[in-house]
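Case study 2.
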Amino acid sequence: MGFDDILKPESVIFNLKARCKREALEVMAESAAKQVGRPASEITDVLLEREQLGSTGVGDGVAIPHGKIDNLHKITGVLALLKEPVSFDALDDQPVDLIFLLLAPANATAAHLKALARVSRLLRDTGARAALRGADSAESLFALATSAEKPDAA
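Prediction:
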């Protein structure tokens, strides 16, 4: 399963405007809701519940909010580059401007962990983060994210 299996062009948000973590998650939940056919409020609730366990802000301006939802058919992602970084209670106390949201079916434990690991590998890479931050449109953000994990990617 590659990024192009979980991330669709319409689930990439370029220059997301948010004043706080909750607002960023709400906007991203709205995008996810369109992909999975579930209410945005349900998705937001799942994400905020997970945030209460500990911030998904992993450092270097990156957050990977995630959660499991009953009756979801496949792992789905939403990628956002924020116009201005927001506080996310990240491990390094730095604000976040790159967010990759992951939703998984409630029973997809192994697949969920593999998807999280794949996203984490991408966003830990300094060059990949710089490329994503340098994107000038949702289309280029999508292309960079989906090509970054391929061996022949530039």
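Residues 7-144 form a domain with the Mannitol-specific EII; Chain A fold (CATH 3.40.930.10).
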